[in-house]
Write a structure and sequence with these properties.
The structure is a single chain. With about 230 residues, the chain is an alpha/beta fold. It contains eight helices and twelve strands. It folds into two domains: about 5-120, Response regulator (Rossmann fold, 3-Layer(aba) Sandwich); about 130-225, Winged helix-like DNA-binding domain superfamily/Winged helix DNA-binding domain (Arc Repressor Mutant, subunit A), CATH 1.10.10. The chain has helices spanning about 10-25, 35-45, 60-70, 85-95, 105-120, 155-165, 175-180, 190-205, and strands at about 5-10, 25-30, 50-55, 75-80, 100, 130, 135, 140-145, 150, 170, 215, 220-225. Strands 2-1-3-4-5 form a five-stranded parallel sheet, sandwiched between helices. α2 runs parallel beside α3 (about 60-70) and α6 packs across α8.
């Protein structure tokens, strides 16, 4: 059965190109020409994924992403002509699952779509990790702290899983995204620090008590084991 993707982009030629190419690979495309029309289509349709342009007149893609994330965890891949790292960071922090700079080949986009959907649709076998009051159901992509659900972005969850799988061992900062299975995300070490900071806050790390995620200065991060 074909996957259904919603493209929100004001570039009619790109919509036609992607529709032609992806339809030959079992991905059907429906297109919204701007943010409001795309949100309306998403609200009344059933889609597996959203392809979202950042630079659109009126409501830009980042605002559209904010509104999507207020209601849904549907996978979102951002498309943009911008090459500035700050734009990639904002999109990822708002909950985008991937970021593809224009120009790109339809073949590359298809590979990204498949990778994002593999992460969003877990295998039948499940993995659960529980350390120090933090529990992660990897297959369900669900995290809890002291029995309470916490809302993590896709990248934050992948980073948490990578650290918890290696609890007690230091994960180098420059290798953390690779360990999290996110080689597709290209950001600086400073950006990794920002994601760690957000993750700590969501885990409830208190400066007055021992941290769950400890910084090893000049090296990386370690998730502290129960017996540490």
């Amino acid at each position: 059965m074909a996957l259904r993707a919603l493209l929100i982009d004001d570039d009619a030629r790109l919509a036609e190109l992607l529709s032609t190419y992806l339809s030959d690979h079992d991905v059907s495309i429906e297109a919204g020409r701007d943010g409001p029309s795309g949100l309306e289509m998403l609200g009344r349709g059933t889609y597996d994924l959203v392809l979202l342009d950042v630079m659109m007149p009126g409501m830009d893609g980042l605002e559209v992403l904010r509104r999507i994330r207020a209601k849904s965890r549907i996978p979102v891949i951002m498309l943009t002509a911008r090459g500035d790292e700050a734009d990639r960071v904002v999109g990822l922090e708002l909950g985008a699952d991937d970021y593809v700079p224009k120009p790109f080949s339809p073949r590359e986009l298809l590979a990204r779509v498949r990778a994002v959907l593999r992460r969003a649709q877990p295998e039948a076998t499940s993995e659960r990790i529980a350390i120090g009051g933090v529990e992660v159901d990897v297959a369900a992509r669900r995290a809890r702290v002291n029995g309470e659900d916490i809302d993590l972005t896709g990248l934050e969850l992948d980073i948490l899983v990578a650290l918890m799988r290696r609890a007690g061992r230091v994960v180098p900062r420059d290798a953390l995204l690779s360990e999290a299975g996110r080689d597709d995300v290209v950001v600086s070490e400073r950006t990794v620090d920002v994601h760690i900071s957000h993750l700590r806050k969501k885990l409830g790390d208190d400066p007055r008590s021992p941290a769950r995620i400890r910084t090893v200065r000049g090296v990386g991060y370690v998730f502290v084991r129960d017996d540490a």
